[in-house]
Target: 3-hydroxyacyl-CoA dehydrogenase
Amino acid sequence: MSKIALVGLGLVGRAWAVSFARAGHEVAIWDERPESIDDALGFVNRVLPDLDAHDLLRGEPPLSVRSRMRRAGSLEEALDGASHVQENTPEDVEAKRRVFAELDRLADPEAVLASSTSAILPSAFSRGLKGCGRCLVAHPINPPYLVPSVEIVPAPWTDPDAVRRTADLLEAAGHAPIVMTREIDGFVVNRLQGALLEEAFRLVGDGFASAEDVDVAIREGLALRWSFMGPFETIDLNAPGGVRDYAERYQRIYERIFPSTQRRVDWSGPAMDAVEAERRTRLPAERLAERAAWRDRRLMALAAHKKKAGEEIGE
Amino acid sequence: MSKIALVGLGLVGRAWAVSFARAGHEVAIWDERPESIDDALGFVNRVLPDLDAHDLLRGEPPLSVRSRMRRAGSLEEALDGASHVQENTPEDVEAKRRVFAELDRLADPEAVLASSTSAILPSAFSRGLKGCGRCLVAHPINPPYLVPSVEIVPAPWTDPDAVRRTADLLEAAGHAPIVMTREIDGFVVNRLQGALLEEAFRLVGDGFASAEDVDVAIREGLALRWSFMGPFETIDLNAPGGVRDYAERYQRIYERIFPSTQRRVDWSGPAMDAVEAERRTRLPAERLAERAAWRDRRLMALAAHKKKAGEEIGE
Model:
């Protein structure tokens, strides 16, 4: 097992702590603000028993997992001996440049330096660094201890060995790495999410459907198969001859739709007025946090279900 | 309970038979080809015990559900006394026009005439009919006995009462109706699916990701939350201040992506070559049917999980 250093302990950093410690790694945690570390450890102490109750700790007692997390007294101490550094500071490109320059200066020469950023290209924060070849993005979907997918995105100068080591580390920790060949805005996950949301906002803005209609179409419809197959396997099984047969039968439907999708919707404009009014009627703002806790319980139950279904029904 | 007439007993029609009979309705089934009815009933006899094993038959024995399905000797007999007619013939607009003209002539004057079409606008097959006001689309995602979402799409002349009665019928049968205000190519479901697939084919075609990367991004990532919340509730809970806060924080990411999505990909061209080569390596063509059976078992297990999680964790 390796030593992992987590730099920045907000929502994403604390979730990585659970994921890496569960996988058996020593996890050193560091944040400029000591109270962020307190909050993170408080969170970890609450979530580990929940994961155990859903059989999502590989059979190890919560305290044993917890014992592999160490609060570091300084950034240097956190980095000392770490083979993988996961950075989770706020999404600001100038700040990330400064952080990565410092990480590159202080970390072991062999360590991989990974950012959790969802929006900043790896080239933007690693350009010109002496160790630019070991810098990359490893972008999780929160929380990574329940959502396996992680995007690994190299800059043009990232060493393929750093990519491979990161993918191996994550895969062994139960993650499902998506290894991109090169960087692009939005990576894979947010490009797919953005394409769907863009059409969703357009349908609501043009008055064809409500926000709830869109949510029903996905949560009581498309996302059921997507949640265990993904969209390509879904269409591969939706025509007798597989995915090409599907495209030959149905592509003309999508061709007809395409021209009407070539128009950006302002997500903060009238479409948002409609979506927000509807959402706040269904869920008042003061209940957002309570609903987020419900979401986490549902996500945990779903992770437990998928694990069991994968074992019983086979893959 | 009502009498439902199913006209056309292919994959979609036979699945509707299960859904409507489970809800307590008398279901008259009719197809021009008697062997289609035999196949459909054979399928029903196999699937009902599976549904019972997953506690998805409302506690009623399979034989009791089955006893409400009747093979009609003629179209007239199927329609006699039916208050809802669900048409499931092949996706050909001329054929649908002929079928709907006949249904309109033969069905009880009060009956709603609904098509399961995924691709034909309701105005295209109901224009000019005496009973055009009772014609609409009720498009399920297959199989409707496991996937609750159904799109109800009116033509410009559809009577709002026909829409309301169809929504009530489906909701009482455990469906989640999406009631569109007016027709548009692709309705809601295929427009959302098309937007996602278009970006997926573009990412593969441009060499940024493999088809499996896309499937992992969705099945091990985005679709987990989508499968019980939908995309709008997902982003509503992804920023402290709700959906508007989310758009204000992250819309600029999606704005940057948008221009690069304004280009159609030929789903049958080089992008398909890549997707198909990959899919056929993972799953040879001769195992497609076996995998579709696996998908149906997973879908059934997921439906059972969602029912249980909804009850235990609350909604």
